[in-house]
Amino acid sequence: MPKPSNTAKEAHRAEWIAQRIRDAILEHRLPPATKLTEAALCDVFDVKRGAIRQALAMLQQEKIVTIEPNRGAFVASPSLREVHEIFEMRRIVEGAAVERICHASHKSGLREVAGMIVRERDAYLTRDFPVWIRLSGEFHVRLAEMTGNTVLLDCLTGLVTRSTLISALYESLGRSPCSFDEHEEILQAVELGDAARAVALLKRHLDSCELKMLDRPAEQAVDLADVLSVGL
């Protein structure tokens, strides 16, 4: 069996680095506008600049990192206009997804989603905020996955990722705009096949999320080595 080429190894390493940075952003450990200094990242991950630049380019494509000429890379800082536009799209896409699931003859996957809500609640009660934040977004992605429409899923995954980034900007750690109680209500309506109620609950939920995110900005300084070296 042939060994992986150096190019393949570098690409795999870059993807792994991108995932580490992505997780730190989405779990609110790296707040928006944090400068992602190449030299510091090279030290943390013990790699050359090429792997770091590949990883940052991946994250730039996902719109959760911005790269500015002569300034470097930063965790993205969504504007208020972006907040409104992202949630407008989420209401359209998720509303269509939930309605489709309600009308489906088979709703396989609902038990898994119910278990996810239980873990979301447990994470909140035990103050495991990174897991809580991740699960609150995964609830929405999992519902989209149940439609079987990969284009819809890709679209919503990107929107949820950007929403989580926004919540890192406009929410303090330990305050998630996404409520597991509301998730439970939406799921119950889906289980009953009540499309009108499920869509109405979903849109009310997203309206509430958007308003909570605009409550107040959260500011915190971080050290890249402290944040990203955990578990290495």
UniProtKB/TrEMBL annotation:
Q: Does the keyword Manganese apply?
A: no
List the signal peptide residues. Answer: none
Record carries keyword Transmembrane helix: no
Occurrences of domain HTH gntR-type (ranges): 11-78
Quote the CDD domains the UniProt record gives.
WHTH_GntR (cd07377)
Q: Which Pfam families match?
A: FCD (PF07729), GntR (PF00392)
What is an example of a GO molecular function annotated in this UniProt entry? DNA-binding transcription factor activity
Identify the PROSITE patterns for this entry.
Answer: HTH_GNTR (PS50949)
Keywords on this record? DNA-binding, Transcription, Transcription regulation
> Any idea what this protein is called?
GntR family transcriptional regulator
Q: Which organism is it from?
A: Pandoraea thiooxydans
